[in-house]
Amino acid sequence: xxxxxxxxxxxxxxxxxxxxxxxxxxxxxxxxxxxxxxxxxxxxxxxxxxxxxxxxxxxxxxxxxxxxxxxxxxxxxxxxxxxxxxxxxxxxxxxxxxxxxxxxxxxxxxxxxxxxxxxxxxxxxxxxxxxxxxxxxxxxxxxxxxxxxxxxxxxxxxxxxxxxxxxxxxxxxxxxxxxxxxxxxxxxxxxxxxxxxxxxxxxxxxxxxxxxxxxxxxxxxxxxxxxxxxxxxxxxxxxxxxxxxxxxxxxxxxxxxxxxxxxxxxxxxxxxxxxxxxxxxxxxxxxxxxxxxxxxxxxxxxxxxxxxxxxxxxxxxxxxxxxxxxxxxxxxxxxxxxxxxxxxxxxxxxxxxxxxxxxxxxxxxxxxxxxxxxxxx
Length: 377
Hints:
The protein has two domains: about 1-15 and about 210-375, MOFRL domain (glycerate kinase, domain 1); about 20-210, 3-Layer(aba) Sandwich (Rossmann fold). The protein is built from 13 helices and twelve strands. The protein has helices at about 1-20, 20-30, 45-55, 90-105, 120-125, 135-145, 150-160, 210-225, 235-250, 275-290, 325-330, 335-340, 345; strands at about 40-45, 60-65, 80-85, 110-115, 175-180, 205-210, 225-235, 255-260, 295-305, 315-320, 355, 365-375. It has a six-stranded parallel beta sheet, with helices on both faces. It has a six-stranded mixed beta sheet with strand order 7-8-12-9-10-11, sandwiched between helices.
């Protein structure tokens, strides 16, 4: 039955999230090293989990900075600050000021372990000279609606900030080892969290990325008999959905899977709908799947690995050939909803479509999965 096939996609998504557990990845990387650290910093959406992975370290200075909505760390040995996301707020500036003081207190010859994950671009901030908080908020809001790729967005964020683009690195005289959980295509240390510690003399180690999540999904699909293809997820969400389904339908075999990882964009030109890029991709894919393939069943799942698809309270959605019509029968025009970027309103009318993982504690970008097999009687 279609519901069973949807469950297959959901189980693969669970596999993806487990593969990029930050606590385990940090712990395993540190176990390969015999290193002593004088200070440990954890920043971003996965900061609490990454910090737990470093719990055995005896460093006297420990600072954690995370978005307000990300999981807290229940450990009194860490000083903790929070800030806004996806837009910076006054607490973001307070966190940025505290980070400046904290980094300046690391003496020459001391060693800093920096645990960096995405989401740090808004939750800690110091404006560049001549700018204030309102300037940052307006700039971030415009960037979020621009449809620009994340690399270009982060390049602009660096221009606005005294911390990004290596600004944090310039504040300390200590040696730095940075363990990075990447949520950006290409896994460039200068782009992850807008490159807080990017620069010469820093050892940057990417311990987890969407590629690792994709590998585990692909392995799980193969164990279930699917022939698997992989690729990059990029471009406008609605167009990426069309391309995903078209490419998936071009694959040959009785059971096929297409696994893409990366990040799409949504250019908001009209409407004030509720939705994130993963919901928009899923809704656009539901339109494509509605035409059906004779004798075959298809599923598309689009997932934000951090569990937060924009501000929707969902992680994305899983859809099949019946989703588009189910939305229509519920009294919502799915085409109009897609046009005004209102995917949440539409998808919540399709039973079981929305993915509600809660905040996962990890963050490696987005996954899109297409599955097709012969109909099961």
